[in-house]
Every structure is written in C-alpha cells, then in structure tokens.
C-alpha cells in the first residue's frame, strides 16, 4: 500500500484527485504519508471474514504463507463492495485511471464502468520477478488446488535472459540499464505497453508529517550520529525464510560491522524472532544491530 500512496502523492502534486481504497486498519498507519489530504481521499473497505483465517485479519502480512490462498479468496469476495465504491465515484466525478495489483477482475470491471477509463497494473517489484513467473510463455496447467507448484517455476520461460541481470549486479546504473531487455520482454509477452515511473518517494515531505519516534528508537538511532547512517533492510511481509536462510542472513549483517536494522518474520516453525537467532547473536550485536518483526 505504501508505494501506491507515494504514487498518489506524486499524482496529487500534478492536480489529480485520488480515491485510495484500503482496509480500515491501514488508515491510521498511512495517514502521515498522505501529503495532500485535500486531493487524496482514503476510502476504508471492510474485509470479510472467511473460515480458516483469524477474525480481524485485514493485511496479507497477517496471514501465514500456508494460508495466503485464503486471503486471495477474501479479496475476490470484496468485488461487490469495491464495485459499489467505484460506481459511486463515477457518478460523483470523472475517473481516468484505476491502479491495482494482483486483483484479476479489475480490467474487466473497469471496461464496464465507462469509455475512456484505463486500468493500470502497478508493479512495485523488479521486472525480473514478473518476467520469470506469471506470464503467457509459461502456459501453466494449474494444480487441483489452483496453486502454481515449484516444479512449474523451475525452468526458465521462453526468451528469458537472466544472465544479463547477474552480470550487472553491483553496478550503480539506472534500472532501465539493468532490466531494459526484461521490460521489452514483458511488453512483448503481454502485448501491452509498459511505462516506467521512476522514483516516487517524497521522503523529505513525508517526514514532516510523521509522528515522533518512540523514545527507544530515537535514542538507538541517535547513538549513530558519528557513523552517519544505519543499514536498513525490510523484507516483504509474506516472506518466511527457513531457519538456515534466516541465520545466514542475520550473520551477514553482523559481519558488516555496521549498525543495522533488519525487518523479518520468524522463520518457518518458529513463533518468535528471538528463539531462531544464532547462538549469542544478540550478545554480539547488542546496541548495534536489531532484528525486528512488526510494522516499520
């Protein structure tokens, strides 16, 4: 949701009005990032409960990876609610574009809303991810559960040239130089135009609206003024590593010798971060490194 709000801020700067659909709980967490509340209207939606998920779940980050398919069912059940909001918006003012992510019924519904409205699939991850996984060249035959299995992802799709990405790792160059051939590949595969938006991250302005840091974090960050920076790494909320991967990762941050703040979920089969850390890890990085699980 945060990348979509950054994009909304950029569109608002140019005079566009935005209706931002989000779960009710997200409003409080995202309010300070809304730099143009006169143009960006938050529209809370109710997330229905389905059997198999805990009551009150609204975010994919709250759902274990093994149950994520149930969350997609929840999203599909929101069709009528979102349809009603968008229809009301069409009556209230003109809609030019609908930005969405992974909700497959949006393009068809957008077409029914009226002539001239465009649906835009807004990707916030690397082109390499999408060029490798979900695309026509793979010609998937879904399993009985409707879920793509790892054997189907093992081989490279036709035309995918991953070696170019590997050769350019570590280079300080623009993303189109790194992934330009993949943008062309995705455009050819889907037979649709792909537009690159560049950086949409109003860091300075959003910091002005941010609530003050909790004392514990303000004091911790304040201890590194001489160093001038802290290494920050946050993995997506749906990523759950195995224990070995988890420990190798945090040990790598320890080896940097730099202050660091890493956001991860506990590895598979572990209830907490602390019980999965390497032996004496917290003792060795005390005051310098933090491995955290939560909203940041």
What low-confidence regions span 5 or more consecutive residues with pLDDT below 50?
142-149, 163-174
What is the count of helical runs?
13
Strand order of the largest sheet: 5-6-7
Class from secondary-structure proportions: alpha/beta
What oligomeric arrangement do these chains adopt?
Answer: single chain
Radius of gyration: 21 Å
The description of the largest β-sheet is:
3 strands, parallel
Proportion of residues in extended strands: 5-15%
Task: Please characterize this protein's 3D structure.
The two termini are 13 Å apart. The strands form 3 sheets. The chain has a 3-stranded parallel β-sheet, covered by helices on one side. It contains 13 helices and 7 strands. Helix 5 links the parallel strand 3 and strand 4. Among the domains are: 86 residues, no CATH class; 81 residues, Glycogen Phosphorylase B (Rossmann fold, 3-Layer(aba) Sandwich), CATH 3.40.50.2000. 9% of the residues are buried. About 7% of the residues have low confidence. 38% of the residues lie in helices and 11% in strands.
Can you give me a brief rundown of this structure?
This protein has helices at 2-13, 26-30, 68-77, 79-92, 106-113, 127-132, 150-153, 163-167, 175-190, 203-209, 215-222, 243-255, 281-284, and strands spanning 18-23, 40-45, 97-100, 118-121, 231-234, 260-263, 289-292. It is an alpha/beta fold and 296 residues long. Among the domains are: 125-210, no CATH class; 212-292, Glycogen Phosphorylase B (Rossmann fold, 3-Layer(aba) Sandwich).
């Amino acid at each position: 949701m945060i990348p979509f709000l950054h994009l909304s801020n950029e569109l608002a700067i140019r005079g566009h009005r935005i209706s931002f659909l989000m779960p009710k709980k997200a409003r409080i967490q995202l309010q300070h990032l809304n730099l143009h509340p006169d143009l960006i209207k938050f529209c809370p939606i109710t997330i229905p409960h389905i059997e198999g998920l805990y009551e009150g779940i609204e975010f994919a980050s709250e759902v274990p990876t093994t149950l994520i398919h149930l969350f997609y069912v929840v999203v599909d059940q929101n069709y009528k609610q979102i349809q009603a909001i968008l229809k009301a918006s069409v009556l209230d003012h003109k809609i030019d574009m609908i930005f969405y992510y992974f909700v497959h019924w949006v393009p068809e519904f957008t077409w029914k809303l009226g002539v001239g409205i465009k649906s835009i699939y807004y990707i916030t991850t690397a082109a390499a991810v999408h060029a490798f996984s979900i695309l026509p060249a793979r010609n998937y035959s879904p399993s009985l559960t409707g879920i793509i299995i790892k054997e189907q992802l093992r081989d490279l799709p036709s035309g995918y040239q991953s070696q170019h990405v590997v050769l350019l790792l570590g280079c300080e160059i623009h993303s189109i130089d790194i992934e330009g051939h993949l943008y062309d590949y995705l455009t050819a595969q889907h037979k649709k135009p792909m537009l690159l938006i560049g950086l949409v991250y109003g860091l300075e302005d959003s910091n002005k609206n941010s609530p003050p840091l909790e004392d514990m974090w303000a004091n911790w960050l304040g201890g590194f003024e001489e160093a001038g920076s802290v290494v920050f790494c946050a993995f997506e909320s749906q990523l759950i590593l195995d224990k070995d991967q988890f420990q190798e990762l945090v040990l790598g941050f320890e080896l940097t010798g730099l202050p660091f703040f890493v956001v991860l979920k506990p590895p598979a089969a572990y209830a907490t971060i602390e019980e999965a850390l390497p032996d004496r890890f917290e003792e060795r990085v005390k005051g310098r490194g933090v491995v955290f699980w939560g909203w940041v």
